[in-house]
């Protein structure tokens, strides 16, 4: 269609007719729009605390108990890791980020315990399968820590000590 | 010698005024748009980790950042015009202020110092001439950048400027007929009288249609939404300033705001009485200077106390929420307001009853009138921001149609009706 400023494509829409003067200037609608924005502005100035924004680094969002966050290893009553180094989690892990070296334990009721237990947090996809697979509830992903930052790749590979003391409530069963 | 000193003083006042309001406007744009869109807006930059002033430190941080950024000049540009363009834009935005009276005059005995920079008889014509020059900066930037988007931005800006200049000129011509003078200061003096005994004789009441035409044209002349097609980022990336970085970009950015402030000053001077305080002319202000000063000090004391109390409440409420020094901000500001309140109260108690004398009363009237001008200018600066965050951008054919097919006939109509009325009323 050849370009024409009188054509239907120049109209504001709806009826497909030519714009009339008042429509063209939109004065009434401009005042209505300015009323709406002024209302929002004044409401927010006088009720600043009611704004929906979450001041993120200062206030943390509550994602509920189902959030899969950074892993932690549980402890027994005596403080030793609950993990029995059965390799279930590292076997089921789809991104192959858990590596465990097992060692024999001296205690009569414990066969094995991990000598090293490292998780590469850069590889981890936070699927939670390790938690599902663990037969003795030794690994959990309930720390609530989801901001994981470091200044080198090596620092993302966390070890047994780190995982055992990952959170303040790590001692709780 | 004294003449030059006064002129330099007035220029300095103008520069300080424009650049202060500019910082406030950039802040107002970011914070205002945030509040309009139910966001919080910038609030992180701080002085010493304590004073944040709700984001008012951000423009300073922005300018510092832009100053230290690399000033990259693309290889294919025309260096001379490329470098010149931001200066042209900024200088033209600033020199428009020269004919704007920001107050009545300072009376020192029998010496009268009018509060405007240039004493030009052409007055308002100077405004028209300079604003039509302002497109040159944008066109130069667009062409010298050697980039198709900048070029399109410059072209659009030119066409838009030519279309809306006519409407602005027609609105101003009608004003010339009404006031019978081209001097902006004479127009402002005319607006000090009353219309029908109760309305201030403002341009907006004499020329309502002319005001709407002028306002719309000013929005187009300053390349401001809904007429900011020169930088329509959805189709032209960012229009004429794509190839600019560092302080050159900052100059474009600041010039946009500077020209808005000047435009706001002209809107308030031509249509809203400029430095005139509505219903209070200079004589009344001088006669009751003592009373007014006392009352304003009392009001200032009460408001400062109120702010201090609110900030103290806020400090008590939010203590321990952030866990660092930022919590001290309401306390610090509250103390400042409290001290201001004490100063106001002290001034009232010590020096009451007020007797300013003739000289003091004249100075008081001048200060009040300058404040009146500043307040009006600030309001219209805010109007620019308010409109920007309300309206979407016009399509190009709509822009041209509005300018040529609607506003031009209306402007002519307004002009002829005004001429007829002025002729018959004489």
Descriptive labels:
heterodimer; A: 173 residues; alpha+beta; Alpha-Beta Plaits; 5 helices; 23% helix; elongated; B: 426 residues; mainly alpha; 2 domains; two-stranded antiparallel sheet; two-stranded antiparallel ribbon; 4 strands
Descriptive notes:
The complex is a heterodimer of chains A (173) and B (426). Chain A is an alpha+beta fold and 173 residues long. Chain A folds into 2 domains: 8-50; 72-164, Alpha-Beta Plaits (2-Layer Sandwich). Chain A has 5 helices and 5 strands. Chain A has helices at 21-25, 27-46, 88-92, 129-133, 160-164, and strands at residues 72-73, 98-104, 112-120, 139-140, 157-158. A 3-stranded antiparallel β-sheet of chain A has the order 2-3-5. Chain A has a two-stranded antiparallel ribbon with strand order 1-4. In chain A, a hairpin with a 7-residue loop joins strand 2 and strand 3 (112-120). The longest helix of chain A has 20 residues, at 27-46. With 426 residues, chain B is an all-alpha fold. Chain B folds into 2 domains: 61-276 and 360-425, no CATH class; 289-355. Chain B is 69% helix and 3% strand. Chain B has a two-stranded antiparallel sheet. A two-stranded antiparallel sheet of chain B has the order 3-4. In chain B, helix 4 (124-144) packs antiparallel against helix 5 (148-179). The two termini of chain B are 44 Å apart. The model of chain B has no long low-confidence stretch (mean pLDDT 84). Classes of the chains: A alpha+beta (173), B mainly alpha (426).
């Amino acid at each position: 269609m050849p370009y024409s400023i009188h054509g239907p494509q120049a109209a504001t829409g709806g009826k497909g007719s030519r714009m009339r003067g008042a429509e063209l200037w939109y004065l009434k609608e401009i005042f209505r729009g300015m009323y709406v924005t002024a209302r929002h502005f004044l409401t927010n100035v006088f009720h600043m605390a009611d704004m929906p924004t979450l001041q993120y680094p200062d206030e943390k969002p509550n994602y509920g108990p189902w959030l899969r966050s950074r892993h932690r290893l549980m402890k027994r009553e005596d403080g030793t890791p609950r993990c029995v180094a059965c390799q279930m989690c590292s076997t089921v892990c789809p991104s192959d980020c858990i590596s465990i070296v097992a060692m024999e334990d001296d205690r009569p009721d414990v066969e094995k315990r991990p000598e090293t237990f490292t998780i590469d947090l850069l590889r981890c996809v936070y699927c939670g399968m390790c938690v599902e697979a663990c037969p003795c509830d030794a690994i959990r992903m309930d720390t609530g820590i989801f901001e994981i930052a470091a200044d080198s790749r090596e620092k993302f590979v966390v070890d047994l000590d780190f995982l055992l003391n990952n959170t303040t409530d790590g001692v709780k069963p | 010698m004294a003449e030059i000193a006064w002129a330099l003083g007035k220029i300095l006042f103008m520069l300080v005024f424009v650049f202060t309001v500019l910082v406030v406007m950039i802040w107002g744009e970011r914070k205002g748009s945030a509040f309009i869109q139910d966001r919080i807006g910038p609030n992180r930059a701080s002085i010493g980790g304590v004073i944040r002033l709700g984001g008012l430190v951000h423009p300073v941080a922005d300018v510092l950042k832009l100053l230290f950024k690399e000033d990259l000049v693309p290889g294919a540009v025309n260096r001379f015009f490329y470098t010149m363009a931001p200066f042209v834009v900024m200088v033209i935005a600033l020199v428009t202020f020269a004919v704007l009276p920001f107050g009545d005059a300072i009376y020192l005995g029998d010496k009268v110092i009018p509060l405007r920079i240039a004493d030009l008889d052409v007055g308002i014509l100077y405004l028209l001439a300079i604003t039509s020059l302002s497109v040159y900066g944008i066109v130069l930037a667009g062409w010298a950048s050697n980039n198709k988007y900048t070029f399109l931005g410059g072209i659009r800006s030119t066409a838009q400027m030519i279309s809306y200049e006519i409407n602005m000129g027609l609105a101003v011509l009608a004003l010339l007929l009404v006031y019978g003078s081209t001097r902006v200061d004479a127009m402002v003096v005319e607006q000090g009288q009353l219309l029908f005994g109760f309305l201030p004789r403002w341009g907006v009441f004499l020329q309502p249609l002319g005001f709407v035409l002028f306002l719309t044209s000013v929005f187009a002349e300053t390349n401001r939404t809904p007429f900011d097609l020169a930088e329509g980022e959805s189709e032209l990336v960012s229009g004429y300033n794509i190839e600019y970085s560092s302080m050159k970009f900052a100059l474009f950015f600041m010039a946009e705001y500077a020209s808005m402030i000047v435009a706001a000053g002209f809107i308030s001077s031509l249509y809203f009485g400029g430095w005139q305080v509505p219903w209070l002319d200079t004589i009344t202000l001088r006669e009751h200077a003592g009373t007014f000063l006392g009352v304003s000090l009392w009001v200032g004391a009460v408001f400062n106390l109120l702010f201090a109390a609110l900030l103290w409440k806020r400090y008590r409420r939010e203590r321990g929420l952030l866990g660092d020094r930022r919590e001290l901000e309401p306390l610090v500001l509250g103390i400042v307001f409290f001290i201001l309140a004490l100063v106001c109260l002290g001034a009232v108690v010590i020096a009451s009853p007020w007797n300013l004398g003739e000289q003091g009363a004249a100075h008081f009237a001048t200060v009040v009138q300058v404040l009146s001008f500043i307040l009006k200018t600030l309001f219209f600066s805010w109007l620019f921001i308010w409109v920007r965050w309300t309206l979407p951008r016009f399509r190009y054919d709509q822009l041209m149609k509005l300018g040529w097919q609607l506003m031009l006939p209306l402007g002519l109509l307004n002009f002829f009706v005004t001429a007829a009325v002025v002729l018959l009323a004489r």
